[in-house]
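pls design
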C-alpha cells in the first residue's frame, strides 16, 4: 500500500535531536529522507551504548532514512547538494541562524535553483530577537521558558522534564510546518521558508499554565505529579509502589466507591468545591487509604470502578505493557546482518496510507551507507566519478 508521503523527497541536514526526530516522523509516513552527514562523522551520543556498531541514541531518531556523506563546505560538495535540491521537495536543517547563509544553502539561494523547494529550519531561539545567536540545548530551553520551575516537588530544586520536551516538541512542530507548506504548494506551485525553534515550541506547550497566569497574575510553582487544585489528579503511594489517578467530574464519586470510603462523600471537606486551601487535607486523607493495599490490588478495584488510573511504571514495565504491543508502539526492525532490534513505533494510525510497521521500517542507516546508491540513482554518477569524489574526500 502506498504511503501518505510517497513521492516526497527531503534532504535532511539536521543533527542532534530536534531535526532528526522531525525528519524521522516524515520518513515513517513515506517521504524519502536523504540524510546528508559530514565525511568522517560517527554520531556517537549515548555514552557507548550501541547495536552492531550503531549508537543507540541515534538509532532512535534516524529510522526511515538514507545516509550519504558530503562535504558541503567545498564548491564541489555544494554543487552536488544543489543538484539534489533541483529534484527534491524539502531541505530540513537545525543549524544556528546565519550558518546556511555562509554555506550558500539558505532559502533565498535555494529557491533560485528550485522555486518549489521548501526550506525548514529549527534553531534554538528563532531567526529574530535578542537571543537569536545564542547556542541552545533542551535543558537550557526548559529552564529559560519556565518549564523547570513548574516541574518537580514544591520546595525542592528545579527539575528538567524526563523526556526532551523542547527538542522533540520542536521536531514535531517543524514536521507540521513542512506538511502545511507541502499542502500550500499544491495550490500556489511555489515553496516557502518554514521556521520554528526550541524556544518557541516550548513556550507553545506551556499552554494552559500560561493562560492561567495571564488571567490570574499568579506565578505557578511545581506541584509534583498533581494538579493545582484537583485533589485526585496525581500519583498516590501504595503499599509497594505508586498509582496515578484522574478522578475528575463523574469519576469523582466512583473513586470513593473503589476506596471503600463512600462515607467521605458526606463529609463537607469533600462535598464542596475543590480549592487550593482544602486540597492538602483531602490528599492526605486519600493517601492514607492508598497505603493499605498494593498497586496491583488498587488497579483491579479502580479499573472495576471505571476510574482513570495507571501504575507508575519503570521504563521496562512500561515497554512490556500489553497496550504497547496492541498498538504497535514497540516494533522489531531487521538489521542487514540478520539480527533484530526493538524500537518505539509510530503513533500515527491511518487506514488508507499507514506508516510502515514492524520489520518493514527502514533500519537506521550507518553514516554514508547510501552515498553511492543515492548519487548514482538520482544524479546518474558513474563508478569512476564516485571513486574520484571519494578520493577527494568530497564524499
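designed seq:
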Amino acid at each position: 500500500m502506498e504511503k501518505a508521503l510517497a513521492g516526497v523527497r527531503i534532504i535532511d541536514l539536521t543533527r542532534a535531536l530536534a531535526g532528526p526526530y522531525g525528519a524521522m516522523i516524515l520518513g515513517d509516513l513515506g517521504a524519502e529522507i536523504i540524510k546528508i552527514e559530514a565525511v568522517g562523522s560517527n554520531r556517537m551520543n549515548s555514552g557507548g551504548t550501541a547495536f552492531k556498531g550503531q549508537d543507540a541514541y541515534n538509532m532512535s531518531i534516524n529510522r526511515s532514512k538514507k545516509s550519504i556523506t558530503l562535504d558541503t563546505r567545498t564548491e564541489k560538495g555544494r554543487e552536488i547538494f544543489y543538484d539534489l535540491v533541483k529534484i527534491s521537495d524539502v531541505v530540513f536543517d537545525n543549524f544556528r541562524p546565519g550558518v546556511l547563509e555562509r554555506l550558500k544553502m539558505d532559502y533565498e539561494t535555494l529557491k533560485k535553483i528550485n522555486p518549489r523547494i521548501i526550506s525548514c529550519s529549527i534553531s534554538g531561539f528563532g531567526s529574530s530577537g535578542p537571543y537569536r545567536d545564542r547556542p541552545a540545548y533542551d535543558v537550557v530551553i526548559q529552564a529559560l521558558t519556565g518549564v523547570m520551575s513548574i516541574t518537580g516537588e514544591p520546595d525542592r530544586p528545579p527539575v528538567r522534564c524526563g523526556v526532551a520536551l523542547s527538542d522533540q516538541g520542536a521536531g514535531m512542530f517543524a514536521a507540521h510546518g513542512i506538511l502545511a507548506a507541502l499542502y500550500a504548494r499544491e495550490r500556489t506551485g511555489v515553496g516557502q521558508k518554514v521556521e520554528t525553534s526550541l524556544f518557541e515550541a516550548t513556550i507553545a506547550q506551556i499552554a494552559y499554565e500560561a493562560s492561567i497566569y495571564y488571567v490570574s497574575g499568579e506565578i505557578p510553582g511545581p506541584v509534583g505529579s498533581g494538579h493545582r487544585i484537583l485533589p485526585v489528579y496525581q500519583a498516590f503511594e501504595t503499599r509497594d509502589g505508586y498509582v496515578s489517578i484522574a478522578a475528575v467530574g463523574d469519576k469523582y464519586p466512583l473513586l470513593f466507591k473503589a476506596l471503600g470510603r463512600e462515607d467521605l462523600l458526606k463529609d463537607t471537606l469533600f462535598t464542596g468545591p475543590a480549592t487550593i486551601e482544602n486540597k492538602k487535607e483531602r490528599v492526605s486523607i486519600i493517601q492514607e487509604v492508598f497505603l493499605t493495599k498494593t498497586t496491583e490490588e488498587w488497579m483491579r478495584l479502580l479499573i472495576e470502578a471505571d476510574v482513570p488510573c495507571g501504575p507508575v511504571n519503570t521504563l521496562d514495565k512500561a515497554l512490556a505493557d500489553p497496550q504497547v504491543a496492541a498498538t504497535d508502539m514497540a516494533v522489531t526492525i531487521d538489521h542487514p546482518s540478520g539480527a533484530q532490534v526493538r524500537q518505539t513505533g509510530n503513533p500515527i494510525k491511518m487506514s488508507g496510507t499507514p506508516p510502515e510497521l514492524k520489520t518493514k521500517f527502514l533500519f537506521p542507516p550507518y553514516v554514508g551507507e547510501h552515498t553511492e546508491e543515492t548519487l548514482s540513482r538520482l544524479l546518474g554518477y558513474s563508478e569512476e566519478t564516485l571513486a574520484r569524489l571519494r578520493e577527494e574526500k568530497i564524499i
